[in-house]
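Contributing: when you submit paired examples, paste them exactly as shown. First protein:
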Amino acid sequence: MSDTAPASAAAPAGEARSGLRAVVLSGGLNFEREVSLSSGTQVVEELTRAGLDAEIRDADPDLLPGLAASPADAVFIALHGATGEDGALRAVLEMAGVPYVGSPAAACRLAWDKPAAKSVVRAAGATTPDWVALPHSTFRELGAGAVLDLMVARLRLPLIVKPASGGSALGVQKVSSVEELPAAMVSCFAYGDTVMVERYIEGTELAISVVDLGEGPQALPAVEIVPASGVFDYTARYTPGLTEYHVPARVSDDVAARAAALAVQVHQALGLADLSRTDAIVSPDGAVHFLEVNVSPGLTETSMFPMALEAAGFDLGEVFAQLLGRRAASAH
């Protein structure tokens, strides 16, 4: 497993493959559309600065005819939420023979399903908080009260309630009392049919990005997340001033190394490619607990993946250009 990427690993200026035509996919029709549009705009700006011909496109009925009429050397996926992360769009691109940056469809389907991803990561030897994932129908058929009582007895308060799939922490809530749980469940079901209830771990929250520029996946310096509310939910992520970020994270060298190893382990265990971001929490005893992984992390100038790249000494545009260049080359 790789250690955190050193600053000397920065991509040399000018290494971007000039002449490449890139299409950046951004937008989509889901709750994370606006975040995706911001990521896509930033990627196009960085690729243009690195010397590539880049244009932004939405995932709509014009996409496939447009790619057929004017093929791209490679596609950069800056879509968040189901459109960019559940593997469906990537499967279509694979059928169409369109090379793209990012993890393959099958790996994305696995990572998108948080309970399934946790099962694979735990089987690989990593630590992750205990959880229960159940569809809405279970509560309807067996009685919500009885099932919720069993959840609390099994996992113990406090709990984290989140959709079993999804991004941007939409629907994520901390539950500290039995009385709060029913409302949190109802709210969470607005984002999907299955809810995952997870034991809450008090500690330092980290985001550890991974990038693979051809020499294997390497972890970037961890970003420490300090939300004012104590929970890194959607509001904390996207409301200026509600969350502090520290990169590198203010943890010991030993914890930083184990967090880096965890992120690479997750990337490899799930079969991911090119880039990913693992979210983890460090408990007071120093254990690093896997929470979830994002196959299409935010790429705006204030997102955690670019923060980590900058801290490692990478140039954002050159990294994006190298990823595209590798995918374009592998298609020929």
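Second protein:
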Amino acid sequence: MTDEAKPRNQSSSLRRALAVLDHVRDHADARGISLTRIADDLGISKSTVLRLTQPLIDGDLLTRDRDTGWYRLGHGALRLGQAYLSTLDMRAVAADPLRRLQHVVGETCHLVVYEAPDVVYIDKVENEHNVRMASRVGMRMPAYRTAVGKAILAWLGEDDFQLVVAAGMPPRTERTITDPARLAAELERVRLSGYAVDDRENEPEVRCVAAPIFDHTDRAVGALSVSGLTSRMTPARVREVGPMVARTGLEISRVLGSSRPRRRRNDEGNQP
């Protein structure tokens, strides 16, 4: 074998071994997946599967049950996943999706993280031709009166809800929700639609549409939003933008390791 052919064969073997690893990841159940099924599904011989999986077992990426011979992911795969997740920064992960969303909708987009009972703005992308929003990176805002805050609270538990209520819900505008029961009903609408709306509750002439961002534990840890003056962000525009924001939130969430599924199309048009 020539020196040139050897790297090509090694590269082909690596690709096939990774295909086996991906197949185990996607198709193994609690028991694992059998040698026969891997071979049949991938269209390769059992002997080839055995050859390809041995280095993966040696590296703890796969494990094989001694009794059944079935394959499962090994703890080395978990270490790789944890190492990957530890390198992720929400602001960096969301940067490109947030800018693409801003380009499409033409309004100011925000990214926040949750620090109970507030949200903290960590990024902002705005259209230079529009009136600028008063928000700024680093600013804190009570979660109960913002779309981003409601988008997060809708997916957190009762303890987080009560913490926000206990911190106080004074009105910022005449439309601010200050009654816990009304806020709870609003959060239920957010869960049904997949996005939250701040209808002049934080700023008198501004509407915001927001969706949650989930981490690898599927906990809502942040949110993104689109904000605009009511003259542009009409109720009809809110219904149009809402599903876009929700899809972008799930796009970011998946990169962060969330397993939450994409929403069905017939759910996306519901107005909270």
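If you have annotations for the second protein, write them as plain sentences, like these:
The chain has a mean pLDDT of 88.
The beta strands are 62-64, 71-73, 108-115, 118-125, 140-142, 196-199, 206-214, 220-229.
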